[in-house]
Amino acid sequence: MVIECSCCKIKIPLKSMKGHISIQYYSFNEHFNIHQRQEFVEAFFTDPVVYGTLNGTTNDGVSWTSVGQPLPLVKVEVVPCTVISLEFFDRLYNRANGVALGECGDLIGCFDQQIDQFTVSDNLRLMLVSEEGPQLYSEAERNQLLFRLFTCFCLGGVWAQHETNLKPYIEAAKTLYKDLVKVERVAGTSELVIRSIVLSVSAATDDGTTVLTQWCRADKLRIIRLLLSLTDWRAIGA
User: Fold this and answer.
1) CA neighbor of 51 nearest in space, from 180, 165, 212, 173
2) 3-state secondary structure string, 28-63?
3) I need a surface site. Which of 30, 115, 119, 127 has the fewest CB within 10 A?
4) Percent of the chain predicted with pLDDT > 70
5) Are 176 and 145 a contacting pair, CB within 8 Å?
6) pTM to 2 decimals?
7) Residue 126 in 3-state DSSP?
8) In 3D, which of 51, 28, 59 has the Cα closest to residue 213?
9) Burial of 53 per CB tally in 10 Å (0-12, 13-18, 19+)
10) How far apart are CA 149 and CA 176, in angstroms?
11) What angle do CA 4, 8, 9 make, to 5 degrees?
């Protein structure tokens, strides 16, 4: 069963990202072993139901198109998703860290500079794309799903008109994160844990043509995420 879901309920802070995020849901109700993730993903992308309905982007990244063929060549990366509190972003509000002017969330600007395909004009984006920016998060923290979603919203595309406040980006990342992962309370305690398993995948056809990429810095950010909870998993493209 395939259910397509729009992201209309998310107040996306960047107009350039509207229509550039796609979520598709696929039901999987058999036993899953994380140690067999490679075999699982290979079987998924060569299943006719999947590649017949899964959307990717065109080579120029401008529009969505049906994959329409098996994708047997896949690379899989486990993405950590253990963050359960927005305190994860508190350090960004600390004025001493050089990103925002405090609890108001207004971003601290910097001289405009071109880095990769982005025009960077504040310290938030400088932190995300350059070692010259504030180094507030470890590599392990940057690998967290929540941080990756946050980065996606903050950077947008090369034509993005960015917000000047931190809060809309955190709210957008939080809303999508809560929709994608499953949180449970440990029996007999107040401890919360995330049960979802997140996989980042790039996939290609037999001839090596990459159809789904893990990350592409262009007008259309292309990120494929595979999320598996107890009985369902989802393919998310942005």
Assistant:
1) 212
2) CCCCCCHHHHHHHHHHHHCCHHHHCCCEEECCCCCC
3) 30
4) 74
5) no
6) 0.80
7) helix
8) 59
9) middle
10) 8
11) 110
